[in-house]
Design brief:
The structure is a single chain. With about 240 residues, the chain is an alpha+beta fold. The chain is built from three helices and 13 strands, in the order H-E-E-E-E-E-E-E-E-H-E-E-E-E-H-E. A seven-stranded antiparallel beta sheet has the order 6-7-8-12-11-10-9, sandwiched between helices. A six-stranded mixed beta sheet has the order 2-1-3-4-5-13, covered by helices on one side. It is globular. About 30% of the residues are buried.
């Protein structure tokens, strides 16, 4: 008799376990939409991740970076957080997602430190501390019908009259490999120029994008890092 009772209990426990597993699968399939987050790595690259609810079935698993999920879209007006390292200290950055269908890109901008100025042929993000009519610190994004190489050569030629220009390659988390142009020293290699330039030329199917960061010598470390981190959220659409 005891043997029959034990066998019945085992069957009931097994059935209950199967029911609980099925319920868990159903609950995990009904999770909420993830919230984007941007974090700066030690090498100043950014990882864009999706923060899931604490009780999510896969909350203990690492989330892939946006470099591996380049089709991950941001919703215009959506707010998300990231971290940036300035002078060795981590700082929380608050981003707002924007989408420009005319030019064909989306990104997040640091809305606490920049004011967005949207025009027909460009987007500008001007420092909140700057004069919008004559800014010194701002990021400007335009589109060119020329290919990336032709555009980069023209920019380098223009800047070479005053700057000792550096040109290389840089990988943006969501836009991939682009041409990186820096004009931060004068013709003699000295940092005696007030206005500094940081430019990314990003290839596109029918031309390229030019993201041109303007900042001053005294603000090079802070604003340069903010421009760079904002550009890691940039994606061609």
């Amino acid at each position: 008799m005891n043997g029959s009772n034990n066998l019945m209990m085992k069957r009931m426990n097994k059935s209950l376990t199967l029911i609980l597993l099925a319920m868990a699968l159903l609950l995990s399939a009904c999770g909420e939409k993830p919230v984007f987050g941007v974090s700066t790595n030690e090498d100043n690259s950014i990882s864009i991740t999706a923060d899931r609810p604490a009780d999510s079935a896969d909350s203990a698993e690492p989330v892939a970076s946006a470099a591996a999920e380049s089709d991950m879209a941001l919703q215009p007006g959506e707010h998300f957080e990231g971290t940036i390292v300035l002078e060795g200290m981590e700082e929380t950055v608050h981003y707002e997602a924007i989408r420009n269908d005319v030019l064909g890109f989306e990104m997040g901008y640091d809305y606490e430190n920049f004011v967005r100025h949207s025009e027909a042929d460009r987007e500008r993000f001007i420092s909140v501390w700057d004069n919008p009519d004559n800014p010194e610190i701002y990021l400007e994004i335009t589109r060119s019908s020329d290919d990336a190489e032709t555009t980069a050569m023209s920019i380098v030629e223009t800047l070479s009259g005053q700057y000792n220009v550096y040109r290389g390659e840089y990988t943006l988390e969501r836009a991939g490999v682009c041409i990186d142009i820096n004009a931060e020293v004068d013709k003699e290699g000295l940092m005696s120029i007030w206005e500094l330039q940081m430019i990314y030329v990003i290839p596109a199917n029918d031309g390229c994008f030019v993201a041109w960061g303007h900042y001053t010598m005294e603000s090079a470390d802070g604003w340069g890092a903010r421009f760079r981190n904002m550009m890691h959220t940039f994606a061609v659409i």
